[in-house]
Design brief:
This protein is of the alpha/beta class. It has eight helices and 13 strands. The strands form two sheets. The chain has an eight-stranded mixed β-sheet, sandwiched between helices. A five-stranded antiparallel β-sheet has the order 7-6-8-10-9, covered by helices on one side. The longest helix is centred in the middle third of the chain and has 14 residues.
């Protein structure tokens, strides 16, 4: 049972499937709840699998004031665009993952420090620094094949952001690890964090936060480890969690 009065000092929000509706928007009730949390000097941190560029406009829209966790914890930023922490994939490895994905026949994306490549490869992988590899397929056999192939590489941390995809970061990189880094920086503990998410790339932060909230639309594994299951992303789930535990 969560103590209602447990003091939340930081709210960590996954974006796709959590903060954002299926139309990739933030509902007005959720904006209002976030605004009220910010008024109480609570850190509101986007903690996403997205790269910095596709995450930042939402931070601006919500008038966030502190930090951003991007690429599943591959980078930690201030909202003033200062990079605080970064974990890169080996270039030869990401090139290899691209080849495997091409062979298996899945849709792929790769996040570099300069932006994302979607189902296309750069002419020279070595001209970029790499943060994350991802692929998806609605063909379960292809997806299983990719998970199996990627599992051979011990230097990878595997998660997903949807049941139909698999994502790879450098070993040990996670949203939870990035949150530990921020807690230390701010001078709070993970016990004072509320984390909301819906997929396997959220599981560690939900397990390690003082209040771990699974979305109503979350994968079963996430609901099983959370302290609380809120409403869906299309039904103000994040707003309801903030209202319940923070406001």
């Amino acid at each position: 049972m969560i103590e209602k009065n447990k003091k939340v000092k930081l709210i960590a929000l996954d974006m796709d499937g959590t903060l954002l509706t299926t139309k990739h928007e933030v509902s007005s009730r959720t904006k209002e709840a976030i605004s009220r949390a910010l008024d109480k000097d609570i850190h509101v941190v986007l903690s996403t699998g997205r790269g910095f560029r596709t995450c930042y406009p939402y931070a601006e829209e919500l008038k966030l004031t502190s930090y951003l966790i991007t690429a599943n914890g591959g980078e930690v930023w201030t909202v003033d665009k200062n990079l605080l922490d970064q974990h890169l994939l080996d270039t030869a490895l990401i090139e290899k993952l691209w080849s495997i994905g091409k062979e298996v026949g899945v849709y792929m994306w790769m996040i570099s420090t300069d932006g994302a490549f979607r189902n296309e490869a750069p002419e020279n992988f070595y001209e970029y620094k790499w943060l994350k590899f991802g692929c998806e397929s609605r063909d379960k056999n292809k997806l299983d094949q990719m998970v199996k192939e990627l599992s051979y590489y011990k230097e990878l941390e595997l998660t997903n952001s949807l049941p139909i995809n698999v994502e790879a970061n450098p070993k040990g990189v996670s949203k939870a690890r990035a949150l530990h880094f921020l807690c230390e920086k701010i001078g709070i503990t993970m016990d004072e964090v509320m984390a909301c998410g819906d997929s396997l790339n959220d599981i560690k932060m939900i397990q390690e936060a003082g209040i771990g909230v699974a979305m109503g639309n979350a994968q079963e594994a996430i609901k099983n480890v959370s302290n609380h299951v809120t409403d869906t992303n299309d039904n103000d789930g994040v707003a309801k969690a903030i209202e319940k535990f923070v406001l």
